[in-house]
Amino acid sequence: MLVGAIISLVIVIILFVLILVFSRYPKKDNYEIKTKPSKLIYGLSHFFFCFMSLGMNIGVLVMVLISEDGEIAPALVPVLDITGGLFGLLVVYFVHIQFEAIKDDTIYYRRFIKIKTINIKDITSVDFVPGRGFYVYLMDKPAFTMDKRSPGAEDLANLIQERKKNEIFFSNSSNPSSDPASLSDEDAKKVEIFKQIGAELRENFKNYKRNKLLSTSLLIFSIIGIAIALLLYIYFKRNNPMMLLYVVFALVAIVVTIASIIKLNGKYDQELNKDDVTLGYDHRLENKKVKGHSKRIFISSIPLFAMIGSFCLVAALMSAFFSHGVFTQPIKREDMVEVTGQFEYIRTITDRYGYEYAIGLISDTNEYRISDTYLMNFDNNFRKEVSIGTPVTLCISPKDSFIDLKFRDKTSYTYAYTLKTDSKEYLSYSGYVASFEQDHLDAKIVFIVSTSIFGLSFVGLGITYLVTKHNSKKETIEI
User: Which residues of 218-230 are buried (b: 16+ CB within 10 A; e: fewer)?
Assistant: First the structure.
């Protein structure tokens, strides 16, 4: 296990270095302008890598080193850690490979693997949305977006407008009323519309800002709150101190969120420094009367409902088929096999998800472990009252596999569900069933809640579609 933890850590570090090297020295492409990741996104991706990749793998390594007798459980943990590590690497990889560029009359952009191209003549508009970036539209449909903070994004947007010979109306964040005399009658009408939208927003700006900040705060704090509740539940149920460390991370996230909201509040206040035309232009896509507003709301809601539905589907499947899941039953007493021997040792095996007891018998090459699920009904006086050589009896399931192990003379281990001596039961069958039923109840709750939210995500998407379709009839302003 120690070797595996070290190897997984070395692998993610090497892959990370390779990504940095290849992204720093790309092949020559001769683009006129090419964007790069913004410092914020660049920094967040590397922070995420450190948390998901280095953090998880170093966590396993530390657990192996500090756990009793250098063993860690369960065996699935390193698999999860290397998976998390690779996921963190993917985040860094996708941030590094994404770009937008222009050469002659062709725009190049990449989001995943393949580089896609668009001819400038096919672009219908490049809209700037404050706080989001540049939206490039192809035949009135969004083709891709560019983060305004990305170096080169604004220059690229301006160059597209220049190549289009100003066919794109107001393609950047500059004041659209800077030269009203040069505007055509059609564009002058648009300026009046922007002025009307801006004046209306200025009048209701207090409510607009409050709703924006409130919706953002509720979403983020709800997610963090649910995460903290789950972590504390696991901590109290499994007596796992690592959960408290994750709670600290969540509390730090709350502080960062509050600071971000305060900063965002200041940015919203700065919007009032703009004139009505610029204010209306910058927020035109948020006006309910502008045609296409409802469609944008519906399209933007699809990823949210998809994410919620996918998460709940995974949670439902895990609660249904994993250990103590909805469709599992406790092992019948008559189906268990008794193992009798002389007590040799008991040790505690820990990982960041919990801990379990491992019991060895003299002259038995197998080790018997009791999962933390059943330790709530385990009599811990066992450590004090049972000495080496005392006859003990454990019950195991013949269906459970024996997992390879290298500890003293032990070559494998399996799980036990009851434990007793000639004079006392330290984990009775009724205790095992009670623990199982408690976990089973938790799985049922998770299953019911997850499947309900999964179904509601489809209902919510359907309701959103109907509402936005109804609201689209009220859209009278065409820009």
Answer: eebeeebeeebee
Phi, psi of 265 (to 5 degrees): -60, -40
Tokens of 107: 């725009």
Q: Which stretches within 292-359 are classed as H helix? A: 293-321
Among candidate residues 97, 117, 132, the one where a domain is terminated: 97
Mean pLDDT of the chain: 75
Q: Is 39 a residue whose pLDDT tops 80?
A: no
- Is 464 within the bounds of a domain? yes
pLDDT tens per residue, range 317-332:
777 766 555 667 888 8
Same domain, 211 and 292: yes
Q: Are the beta carbons of 196 and 244 closer than 8 angstroms?
A: no
Measured between alpha carbons, how far is 310 from 80 in angstroms, rounded to an integer? 19
d(CA 149, CA 45): 15
E-only strand ranges, 306-383: 337-351, 354-361, 366-370
Nearest to 414 by CA among 392, 386, 441, 395: 395
Three-state DSSP at 194 gives helix
Rounded to a whole number, what is the largest CA-CA distance in the chain?
101
Give the tens place of pLDDT for each residue, 101-159: 888 778 888 877 778 888 877 777 676 665 556 667 665 566 777 777 677 777 887 77
The pLDDT score that the predictor gives to residue 47 is 62
Domain residue limits at 396: 333-435
Q: Residue 172's pLDDT is what?
A: 40
Q: Between β-strands 337-351 and 391-396, what pairing exists: parallel, antiparallel or unpaired? A: antiparallel
Phi-psi region of 139 (alpha: psi -120 to 50; beta: other; left: phi over 0): left
Residue 86 in domain: yes
Same domain, 315 and 456: yes
66 and 37 in a common domain: yes
* 312 and 339 assigned to the same domain: no
3-state class (DSSP) for residue 326 = coil
